[in-house]
């Protein structure tokens, strides 16, 4: 499992086995907060099954969804590298199972396998570059561009040439991700539906064809 996780790319078989041995399994039911923003950070989570949403909250309790993660993704990685607090909260969207690496156990593994730290830092640098690009996109694009990016990023290819979004997104979910009003998102989705760019199958969004560059 760990050899398919981005943060562990480039590790040797021996190093992967050491990381696997240092981890434990945990499972959480749907709609459970796995970690809380600003709590002490002491562990890395690798998602074995299920899905979670990563979010921050303002002082009024309004949530801003930063990302949705699924099997093979990970979160809490900064806990292994510094002594800060959690930068975001994570809640399960469905029943989920994780491999958890505690910071103390990770440090013990590094005593015998120091190359792990070097390789993980290199992998994290690639992740930071992607996050920087995402922030740039959010800052420079209009609302339609941000909505289109979210839909494309969350979609998966199907055999019939269309794209399928496995997450059951509400208009408010999308609005929270792109920093816009629900009404504006509703208008964009309606126009994309009328133009037959997207359609709905139950609560799932299907992308029929490439979304237009401009709204």
TrEMBL record:
PROSITE patterns: CNMP_BINDING_2, CNMP_BINDING_3, HTH_CRP_2. SUPFAM superfamilies: cAMP-binding domain-like, Winged helix' DNA-binding domain. Keywords: DNA-binding, Kinase, Transcription, Transcription regulation, Transferase. Residues 141-211 form the HTH crp-type domain. One of its GO terms (cellular component) is cytosol. Residues 7-127 form the Cyclic nucleotide-binding domain. One of its GO terms (molecular function) is DNA binding. This is cAMP-binding protein-catabolite gene activator and regulatory subunit of cAMP-dependent protein kinase.
